[in-house]
Amino acid sequence: MLAEIPVISPIFQVLLDSIGWILAWLYDVIPNYGVAIIVLTLLLRFLLFPLGMKQIKSMQAMQALQPKIKEIQKKYKGNKAKAQEETMRLYKEAGVNPLGGCLPVLAQFPLLIAMYAVIRAPGYEPVTIDNQPAYMITNNHLPTDSALFASVVTHQGTGFVGLNLQCSASQAGSVQNSTIKDSEGEAVKPGVQLVGSNRQALDSFESKPVIPCGTDGLTSKIGYVLLLGLMIGTSFYQTLQTQRASPQGAASSQQQMILRVMPLFFGFIGFSFPAGLVLYWTVSNLFMIGQQTLLLRAGHIGPDALDRRMAEQKAKMAAEADKPKKKGLIAGMMERAEEEQKRREAEAKKKPAPGSRGSSTQRRKKKPGSGGKRGT
After folding, report:
1. Residues ≥6 apart with Cβ < 8 Å to 20
2. In 3-state terms, what secondary structure has residue 256?
3. pLDDT band at 332 (very low <50, low <70, confident <90, very high)
4. How far is residue 72 CA from its own chain's centroid?
5. Where does the chain have alpha helices with state H?
6. Confidence (pLDDT) at 7
């Protein structure tokens, strides 16, 4: 995990604690765990809106360029250097950064891990305080004096539309699966004093060994499975929306297969995630769908957007080529030195060399009679 990497750990811990504090504050304002998660998701998505827009535009542009890239690769099949050069020229003409679609995704990935760390139930580590057994709360990023912390530790007040957002679809309907285990893999004992990371007792908090996820078997799973299905469905729709916005043949069959399989993969791993995280994922998908819809209507993405973008980029490059290039200080000094050298050489050529016959000042004067016949 990122939190285990020494270089990233301090920064990542600040991110976790910040998200936990905001979520706890929202819970104080809106005492509903699900609504607080939805509001937090929207706040984070609005904060990441520029990155999300850049990601969508870059991915659309890269997909639209695929047919032209394939033509270049086919044309210069035996010359990889030339193919690479022409491909980079194509990227430049289109104003596309090949990494533009990847970097925003990498920037958002830690946020998903952070939300998982904040939403999941805290861990329990068995310790001894004053010769008495106790459980130290671990993996907690909520303020211990907040109402949300009390709700999470007691597993009360974390419901939303009939679901306990601390539970996963795999835990629902099974007391055995929803039993909490400590850091040593043993079932948590009930009624044991809870202490904070500083080993100070958390007043009025005792261990609760089971998260109430329902006991009706498959019946209790229905709500969790429906929420998971909504997450998978919104992921599929977002994928189809992306494909419709791309030119025909832009994505290969392998890429199309990956795009269709990924929502199923997310659903598979989401089966074991807390429902609160699945709710965050679903709301994020809905936000991205709305964002893509706005970009499509505004003409920033879509089949015709790349051609328009390339035309604008070519016009911009042509305008920049016509502008006189600004020279740096060193280049300007060198140019002036060369001009001065040329000027001196030109002046030197105009002056006659000393002792030359063409010099009027050095020409000898003829003596009288020196040019006539000698007397006889």
Report:
1. 118, 140, 141, 142, 143
2. helix
3. low
4. 29
5. 9-29, 33-47, 49-75, 80-94, 103-119, 147-154, 218-244, 253-270, 275-298, 305-322, 329-350
6. 44
Tell me how far CA of residue 348 lies from CA of 69, 216, 340, 358, 359, in angstroms: 58, 106, 12, 16, 15
Alpha carbon separation from 349 to 2, 344, 345, 352 (Å, rounded): 74, 9, 6, 7
Block residue for tokens 């992921």: 235
pLDDT of 183 above 80: yes
| 359 vs 108, residue with greater confidence | 108
For strands 123-129 and 132-138, give the pairing.
antiparallel
**Three-state SS at 191:** coil
Strand partners, 129: 132
Q: Read off the pLDDT of residues 211-235 as tens digits, 9 standing for 90 and up.
A: 999 888 788 899 999 999 999 999 8
Task: Report residue 184 as tokens.
Answer: 């040593």
- Give the integer Cα–Cα distance in Å for 310 and 96: 9
Q: Which of 154, 210, 156 has the alpha carbon at shortest distance from 181?
A: 210
Residue 68 vs residues 73, 84, 108, 247: alpha-carbon distances, Å: 9, 13, 30, 12
**Beta-carbon count within 10 A of 56 CB:** 22
